[in-house]
Amino acid sequence: MKDLVTAFTRFASHEAKNNSPLYEYWSQRIQTDEQLLNLIMHIPKSQPKPNLFFGAVQYLSAQIETPLKQLFENPNVVDLEESFQLLTDFCTQHSDELLKLFQTKSVQTNEVQRGSYLYPIFSEIAEEAKLPLTLMEIGTSAGLLLNLDGYRYEIEQEPSISFGNENSPLTVFAKNYGTPLTSVKNLNILHRIGIDLNIIDLQDSDEYLWLKSLIWPEQIRRKENLDQARAIHRHYPKLLLTGDFRKLIPSLFESHEFKNSQIIIFHTHVANQFSATLKSELLTLLQQLSHIQSIYHVYNNMEDKDLHVDFIDAGITKTIKIFQNTDGHGKFFCWN
């Protein structure tokens, strides 16, 4: 129970603060609510409990005509204390349905705004490699970040810069607090491959609702971005594989299909759900596979929160860049 309280304390102060007043307040109140804590204890250890709990509540309430559904639709005009009472009432009435969701759903946010920093990183890699790219994403969810060249990006810096698909119906906005980007070249992506234990099918209305329910209520732009990215998604062919990356990635390398491209294996805000053993196995696997073909590894949440860019070749890993102070939802980054 102590670990659960700590999780909600951290969620309130480090994640929801300045992003979701509703979830910040709920997280603070949940810490002392024994009934809710006992319910949330049933979420598997592998899942970030605040995210899964709030996503499950939002998902379930969207399908039932309740005051909580109306609250999620208008989160900026609610009385916070009254909202918490609505939450506890809802959880009491629908505890069985929530318990089932805890066991059948997982946190799989697909945040397209992260493309604001991934795109220029990939562009630099392509320039260095002088090759088109093969993207492999671990924890791909619906695969929306595999389409990052299908979006337009407006980066607030001095001077401001835009890049990406100038004709895209989706424009991603972000701030760069670091060294100004001066030139970001278009990407040439030959292969797009996503791996996940549970691929989200955007054409399935129920699965799409789950993905949308993981977005915090006040973040209207994120939900709008998801709607637009969903429409773009079908225009970018990709291979989405369900299963364990430890088995799937080696089989991909064995085909030698990607020898005329630069492979980038990336994952953002996924490794926080990995055990220490799984993290170690991933790094060892990439070192082994780099004897077949060189790999760029772009990731965070392995040993710290920073965003890392490593180059792995012939079993040797070289750190290329480390980005500190990068927003989890891609609202800002510090280029270096």
Q: What does this molecule look like?
A:
The chain has 336 residues and is α/β, with parallel strands linked by helices. The protein has helices spanning 2-16, 21-30, 34-40, 49-61, 67-73, 80-93, 95-104, 115-129, 205-213, 220-233, 245-254, 276-289; strands at residues 133-138, 152-156, 161-164, 171-176, 189-196, 239-242, 262-267, 295-299, 307-313, 316-323, 332-333. The protein has a 7-stranded mixed sheet. It has a 4-stranded mixed sheet with strand order 3-2-4-11, with helices on one face. The longest helix is centred in the first third of the chain and has 15 residues, at 2-16. The model has no long low-confidence stretch (mean pLDDT 94).
Please name the defining characteristics of this protein:
single chain, 336 residues, alpha/beta, 7-stranded mixed β-sheet, 12 helices
